[in-house]
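Hey L., structure's done. Input below.
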Amino acid sequence: MRAWIIPALAMAAAQQPSPEPTFRAGTELIQVDVVAQDKDGKPVTDLRREDFQIFDNGAPQEIRLFLADRPAPASGAAMPPGEFTNRIVTDVHGGYAVLLFDNLNVDPGKASFGHTARARQKALQALATIPPGDRIAIYALGCRFQVVREFTSDRDLLMQKLEAFAPAPAGCLDPGEGPEHSRLGNGRGRGGRGTGSDGAPDFIPHGDDDFARVASAAAAEIGDSEFSQLADHLAGIPGRKNLLWLTSTFRLAPVNMQKLINAAAAIYPVDTLGSMIAMASAKKARAAMLNAIAAPSGGIFYFDRDDLDVAIRGALNDGLISYTLGFYQTDDDKRTPVHQIGVRVSRPGVILRYRTSYTIQPPQPASTNPVHDLIQAMNRPVDATAIGITASAARIADRLDLSVNFEIAALDLKLTDGLWKGQTELLARFATADGVQAGDTLAETVTFNLRPATYASMLEKGAHYHKEIPVPANAVELKLLVGSLASGKIGTLTIPLAEVK
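Output:
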């Protein structure tokens, strides 16, 4: 095994993230999570396979998969102190839910900004009252996607992170500098405008109205990128995910809404304005808009209410009892890109909620720039899971003793001359609280020449890597990456230093 520094990779990893690649989550077995309730909203728990019918573009399909999910106490506790993983736990009971605080389109000069802060307090109240078992993540949208806490069933840790989190104002553009100096880049793609032949922006705002228009276009594009990242991340997590979207301004591009639906994310818009809307016509219009977001995904919307803690608790608990139906596509079906799903039940009085569509995506072509893909993954705020990583870390003064174990099945090693041969790239980078790189990026290439017995052992137990690295004074987290240039698969793991022993 030998290692060396890759200067170009280390330098590029310190740059700002580039647009997110598209990850395809399509599969021939189409799975649909169905929530069944009676007219009072209580779950119906005794339905059988023969009670259901499922349709793809109106054509009846044979139900090849049938699962009746029931809540039960979680069998796995939180990771021990000092241990971290990006592996998705699939052998525990309970569901997955996301609290998404969207402050991107909220004006800090208006009362609605205070409503998002109030929603955080209501979320704390809700978390304190729900039973353990579910794995919950907390994310925030703003000028950059922020991971407050990744999925965990540790309620105390979730509440600690949420208590410390404060929504930041959404001002992604500096009115004194113009769109070409936004926090997120120059020229095309950030203010919705391009640049002239001399490299200067072809539109500079003059006055409040122009600036507001440019800022709105920038926020829309930033939001599109962040929702795309979120959908890609959730696609790697099995089963139904309840996505609680807390904001006062709901803006979601159709393509990203479909990506969330494909990822089995049920969207629960929670309107943080509460009961501020007075006119009946305005309430009706807002309800129709929120329902258009929630219903196609199998979620529920909450608006015109001030008991947001009750709404959040209801959304977190919704769908804990559900049914999973699966059917296989036919070759003819694959020629239609968008498919409409229908589910019926023979028992009268049962109300069903489920995602109403899915899309067929062509296989993702091999990357033409795998090094660039590694850099992108390193800059993503959410972890990639194509390569499983588990790490233990201990703090010794200003140094971090780091032990990493990672899966090698995804590295595409080749059996040559009786040895399993190949390479993997390892990167480690510290970051400050505002996401800026702290210190140098560690970049190493690990070369494998494994005897068959050693390779078989590593397939079962993983490959081990150990290093002691200095911790910059202002660092708050460490990002690890394991990537294969041969297979194109990548795994990343974020380690909050505050949680290191």
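Confidence is low (pLDDT under 50) at residues 1-27, 174-205. The chain has nine helices and 22 strands.

-- N.
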